[in-house]
Design brief:
It is a single chain. The protein is an alpha/beta fold and 694 residues long. The protein contains 23 helices and 26 strands. The protein has 3 domains: 223 residues, 3-Layer(aba) Sandwich (Rossmann fold), CATH 3.40.50.740; 198 residues, Dimethylsulfoxide Reductase, domain 2, CATH 3.40.228.10; 114 residues, Barwin-like endoglucanases, CATH 2.40.40.20. A hairpin with a 2-residue loop joins strand 2 and strand 3. The radius of gyration is 24 Å and the shape is globular. The two termini are 36 Å apart. Bound molecules: iron/sulfur cluster (SF4). Iron/sulfur cluster binds next to helix 1 and helix 7. Iron/sulfur cluster (SF4) binds next to helix 1 and helix 7. Its cofactor is [2Fe-2S] cluster; [4Fe-4S] cluster. One of its GO terms (biological process) is formate metabolic process.
Length: 694
């Protein structure tokens, strides 16, 4: 119970944390929230919620919320509180000023994967139709952009193939580079239930994750891969599938591109991909690799779930394609219990990409260079747009340091804390002439901003989120926006102040426009969502109630495509000075940069980041549990509390990144995925030494 009294009404909404997208019931009395509970009707959660979602109301009602627009002429000056009109006019003049001095392409925007589909759509429309360029990106750049690339290349659709309930038909579950117990807890419960019913488990991860504890010792397989060698290991699994004749030739013949199969078949059978050849480098015994391949290849239904431990590498896109190759080779696609499924981190990171908040694609993943697609948007929006893709977030930083990109509108994203090599990001933000930040709290990025506009929480606005299973669910306004405007209203006010007519009366009108311009959303409307509760895209005339399983009879691209995935070792190597490999990730109680969870009851349970280190490595350095330790990489250094645990392998350390004072990302490098520029957060060579004891 949040406030006293009997609620007068209840609304169904969607959790604004992770990509599971749990439905929640908000019970309201007057202008106050009385209760927030998981909804039994939720298609993704069936009445469950985790510790993050249950306490999500805490940040919405936190006293540190930004309640009024703030402006300043220079980032060294104190903020001035102003009204919305003055702030919007100031922001518009500042951004136009940068363009007048440096050109149309000198500004851009970052949409939020925490905001709604409608808001992401409006930010990319603002950039394309009003700024006049394609310099738009979102946080998928630093998390799942390789999923978009790899899944589209293999199957033709930049999204997971299944619905969550599909896992109940899986006989084998392969979890690669993901820790759903902490990061996707409600889906982890479904996974555990299926494991207790007898499904087999393979975990590919440098850490021993909680899912393995569901089973009796020895039942699950743990392939404790050395950070940075996923592609090598997955190619070795593929080698075993082919060599031991565990592939499904009927499926390949009927559903896959034959030339790509033959090319991949020959590529994989190179001796350098044999398990015995790779075990030394990837740190997993050949016998274990072969056993994993046999179990995956022999299962009637084998499902793959993966996370940022796959994507956040210099070979992230290759690893996604390597996973897709396994599913194609064994026919594990197109029905319940199988598939390749990214576990998306943020509540609406799937949606932000679906909405075209990326520099190369409009809504529905259609390239800006395709004349006919661009023409349809130009006609609808009444503008002309360039045919070349815009800048990705890392390219914005580079261009800022070169004096070519000097103005930014950043909605609901804390790039100064969350992006790799913080010093580089801070220098880029310092180099910009005008930065507009919109957020619910003062964040690290706002330290470099000239305008800070209040954001609205998920409880204060209408809209939709799209979760990891492509499920579009409503969020419903239970409280008035604390500062008087929801984010979608602010974006369109900025567009109007910059001279473009944008006047939606309600987010449902934005969704209607999205549906008109996006084939995969053609059947989506608020009316349908009210009727069905939620719907999975594609939703169109052929699938008026949406699509639970993709690629059932044919792939979106026609035939499935095998992609060769040569292993290229990361340039981030251990040395005498930096002998350990750091990998980073989330913990159960906190979410991303922690701006929200640090302002909820979750803070009472965990109030700082930790470094997990193997007992052997700890003993060699005189480190005991609870010690303050200095962690240094080639990029920078920070201090964390040590947790001594054998859940990490010797030679590997693990840290979370939820607290700005820890600044874990001062350590991470600028290495990035070859295809999408997704940063390599998961491999950083470090040294650890004791700096004190609490
Ligand atoms: Fe559900 Fe994720 Fe929210 Fe937890 S954080 S309640 S698993 S959506």
């Amino acid at each position: 119970l949040i406030a006293a009294g009997q609620p007068t009404h209840a609304l169904t909404t969607t959790c604004a944390y992770c990509g599971v997208g749990c439905s929640l019931e908000t019970e309201v009395k007057g202008g106050q929230l009385v209760r927030l509970t998981p909804s039994r009707a939720g298609g993704a959660n069936h009445g469950h919620a985790c510790v993050k979602g249950r306490f999500a109301w805490g940040y919405a009602t936190h006293p540190e919320r930004v309640k009024q627009p703030l402006i300043r002429d220079h980032i060294t000056e104190p903020w001035r509180e102003v009204g919305w009109d003055e702030a919007i006019a100031f922001a518009a003049a500042g951004l136009r000023g940068v363009q007048a001095r440096h050109g149309v392409g000198a500004i851009g925007g970052i949409a939020s994967s925490r905001c709604s589909n409608e808001e992401a759509y409006l930010v990319q429309k603002l950039v394309r139709a009003v700024f006049g360029n394609h310099n738009i990106d979102n946080c998928a750049r630093v998390c799942h952009s390789p999923s978009e690339y790899g899944l589209k290349a293999a199957f033709g659709e930049a999204a997971g193939t299944q619905h969550f309930d599909s896992v109940h038909a899986a006989d084998l579950i392969l979890v690669c580079g993901a820790n759903p117990t902490d990061a996707h807890p409600v889906f982890a419960s479904a996974l555990r239930r299926r494991l207790r019913e007898g499904a087999q488990l393979i975990v590919i991860d440098p850490r021993r994750t909680g899912l393995l504890d569901t089973l009796h010792a020895g039942e699950g397989l743990h392939l404790a891969v050395r950070p940075g060698t996923n592609v090598l290991l997955l190619n070795a699994i593929a080698y075993t599938l082919i060599e031991e004749k565990l592939v499904d030739r009927d499926f390949i013949g009927a559903r896959c591109d034959e030339a790509s199969w033959l090319s991949w078949h020959d590529f994989i059978l190179l001796l350098e991909h044999a398990p015995e050849a790779v075990e030394g480098e990837c740190g997993v015994a050949a016998a274990l690799i072969r056993e994993a391949a046999r179990r995956y290849g022999r299962a009637a239904n084998a499902a793959i779930y993966y996370g940022l431990g796959v994507t956040e590498h210099s070979q992230g896109s290759s690893a996604v394609m390597a996973l897709a190759n396994l599913a194609l080779a064994t026919g594990n696609l197109g029905r319940d219990g199988v598939g390749v499924n990214p576990l998306r981190g943020q509540n609406n990171v799937q949606g932000a990409c679906d909405m075209g908040a990326v520099p190369h694609e409009f809504t529905g993943y259609r390239h800006v260079g395709i004349e006919e697609v661009r023409a349809s948007f130009e006609a609808a929006w009444g503008v002309q747009m360039p045919e070349d893709a815009g800048l990705r977030i890392p390219q914005m930083f580079e261009a800022a340091l070169e004096g070519r990109f000097l103005g930014l509108y950043c909605q609901g994203e804390d790039i100064a804390q969350s992006d790799p090599d913080s010093r580089h990001v801070h220098a880029a933000l310092m180099a910009m002439e005008f930065v507009v930040v919109q957020d619910i709290f003062h964040n690290e990025t706002a330290r470099f901003a000239h305008v800070l506009l209040p954001g609205a929480t998920f409880l204060e606005k209408d809209g939709t989120f799209t979760n990891a299973e492509r499920r579009i669910s409503r969020i419903r306004r239970a409280l008035p926006p604390l500062a008087g405007m929801a984010d979608w209203q602010v974006t369109q006010a900025l567009a109007r102040a910059m001279g473009y007519p944008m006047a939606y009366g309600h987010p449902s009108e934005v969704m209607d426009e999205i549906a008109r311009l996006t084939p995969t959303f053609a059947g989506v409307s608020y009316g349908l969502l009210d009727k069905l509760g939620s719907v999975q895209w594609p939703c169109d005339a052929n699938a008026p109630h949406g699509t639970a399983v993709l690629h059932a009879t044919a792939f979106s691209r026609g035939l499935g495509q095998f992609n060769n995935t040569p292993y290229m070792p990361t340039s981030e190597a251990v040395s005498r000075a930096f002998p350990l490999l750091l990998t980073t990730g989330r913990i159960l109680e906190h979410y991303n940069v922690g701006a929200q969870t640090r302002r909820t009851a979750n803070l009472a349970w965990v109030d700082r980041d930790h470094l997990r280190i193997h007992p052997q490595d700890a003993a060699a350095r005189g480190i005991r549990a609870g010690d303050r330790v200095r962690v240094a990489s080639r990029m920078g250094q920070t201090e964390l509390d040590a947790q001594v645990t054998d859940t990490v392998q010797p030679g590997v350390v693990y840290a979370s990144f939820h607290f700005p004072q820890s600044g874990t990302n001062v350590l991470t490098t600028l290495n990035a995925d070859w295809a999408t520029s997704c940063p390599e957060y998961k491999v950083t060579a470090v040294e650890v030494e004791r700096s004190g004891r609490d």
